[in-house]
Amino acid sequence: MVRSFEYVVPGSLDEALETMKEHAPHLKPLAGGTDLLVELKNNLNGPQVVMDLSGLPELRGVEETSAGLRIGAMVTHTEIEKDPLIAEHVPAMMAAAATIGGVQTRNMGTIGGNLVTAVPSLDSGPVLLALDAQVTVAAAGGKRQLPLTEFFVGPRQTALAPDELLVDILIPTVMLGRRASFRKFGLRKGQALALVNAAASVAVEGGRIAEARIALGAVSPTVIRAMSAERVVTGKQINDADALREAAEVAVTEAQPIDDFRASAAYRRELIAVGTFRVLEEALAQTTAA
Amino acid sequence: MHQVEATVNGATRRAEVSPETTLLSTLRDSWGLTGSKLGCDVGDCGACTVLVDGLSVNSCLLLAVQVNGREVVTIEGLGGFEYLHRLQTAFERLSSFQCGFCAPGMIISAKALLDENPAPTEPEIREALAGNLCRCTGYTKVIDAITEICRDRAVAVEAPA
Ligand SMILES: Cc1cc2nc3c(=O)[nH]c(=O)nc-3n(C[C@H](O)[C@H](O)[C@H](O)COP(=O)(O)OP(=O)(O)OC[C@H]3O[C@@H](n4cnc5c(N)ncnc54)[C@H](O)[C@@H]3O)c2cc1C
């Protein structure tokens, strides 16, 4: 049984932020509810106010701006799977969205809710990190923008203040069209949380890897960049499989996987190596194909 | 308390609910629509799947207040004693119901799929049902029923009227 709360549906971002200012930290925003409803059912000390974000046009839509591709926090995983701008500029995001839950979860769950829940296994994290995503957060006092790397603070912890809303996610212009790849390893094919997930993006110049990003999920308190592994491949020929293998080994040393009921740390280390190798290989294959 | 008014299976329904009431309990307890089942209550099993504005969702993870002004379709909206939906007929013909608990959710997920993609491949059918668990593990017959409908449909589309 869920403890009762007050339910409010603001009609604009300003109204929502004022409501948050008044009630934080006793208020929880409600996006798709696929995490929040479960939490409310499990938690006897729930919020006093639940604020439905469905009436805020400022949190919706995908659009190209002068700074890059802007994705509203309330965009659902299903919308990401079908969005033409995402298909054109950041198809790896579609691949990641398609692995989240079942259809019912993707129809309700939003990218914003995924990031704010900030579980280490979140499936929208690695691709966004590999594409240098920024997030915009807002409070009644104003907006600020920060890199996603700074948004994730710990397991289920973000840099959001209690009175702040996540407004949108920005993929910077230089990253649009960049070759990127995503892989998720779970215990079953459908509707399973990641044991390990991984993403890579690569820029290629003159047959060499000019820039690489590798991001890993479910292997550390937050989703992480494997920067030492990135350095291993940077400057290497695109067909240098030994470099990819070395990067895969190095990536394992950058993570701190744990034993839990889903998998052992040792198995996760194997998956990190395999995942890192494959996402790099797949991202590079796209580059040579273009 | 909040007033909720929604179009449910084509008819306007109203209920007075407290904010924490889920759509599922409102369907079952206020409106007597007990076809949607309470399974896991946390979005894993899909037994409570309904359509909201045409999209399949887990009604255990939706507050009743969230569907105010929206359109809900439950298993009762597909067919009943007088008339069965072709998905229901196919499930019956192929014995796809075992204990039957997951079937309403399975059928709603299948309807959502067929509304969008009338001729899905078997992998597409399996993917569309990934959020519906069958504790009898009777998946094969469920897939068979949906596949058969699609085959009939493909034949119907090919044959000149
Ligand atoms: C059956 C099932 C399977 C799942 N499978 C996966 C999976 O495979 N991979 C995966 O990554 N996740 C999975 N999830 C988790 C969940 O569906 C996702 O994290 C989803 O994206 C959450 O989004 P939401 O809109 O439902 O968030 P909500 O539940 O509405 O909100 C989540 C949290 O974020 C806060 N919040 C939401 N939006 C904002 C905002 N704009 N600003 C500030 N705070 C905000 C809420 O207050 C709440 O604390 C699964 C969940 C279920 C139930």
Structural description of this entry:
The complex is a heterodimer of chains A (about 290) and B (about 160). In chain A, the strands form four sheets. Chain A has a five-stranded antiparallel beta sheet with strand order 4-5-10-6-7. A four-stranded antiparallel beta sheet of chain A has the order 11-12-13-14. A three-stranded parallel beta sheet of chain A has the order 1-3-2, with helices on one face. In chain A, β8 (about 150-155) and β9 form a beta hairpin. Chain A is globular. The relative contact order of chain A is 0.12. Chain A has about 290 residues and is an alpha+beta fold. Chain A has helices at about 15-25, 35-40, 75-80, 85-90, 90-100, 105-110, 110-115, 125-130, 150, 225-235, 240-255, 265-290; strands at about 5-10, 25-30, 50, 60-65, 70, 135-140, 140-145, 150-155, 155-160, 165-170, 180-185, 195-205, 210-215, 225. Chain A has three domains: about 5-50, Uridine Diphospho-n-acetylenolpyruvylglucosamine Reductase, domain 2; about 55-175, 2-Layer Sandwich (Uridine Diphospho-n-acetylenolpyruvylglucosamine Reductase, domain 3), CATH 3.30.465; about 180-290, CO dehydrogenase flavoprotein, C-terminal domain (Enolase-like, domain 1), CATH 3.30.390.50. Chain B is of the alpha+beta class and about 160 residues long. Chain B has helices at about 25-30, 75-80, 85-95, 105-115, 120-130, 140-160; strands spanning about 1-10, 10-15, 50, 55-60, 70-75. Chain B has a five-stranded mixed beta sheet, sandwiched between helices. In chain B, α3 packs across α6 (about 140-160). Chain B is globular, with a radius of gyration of 16 Å. The interface between A and B is medium-sized, with 27 and 31 residues. Flavin-adenine dinucleotide binds next to β2, α2, α6, α7 and β10 of chain A.
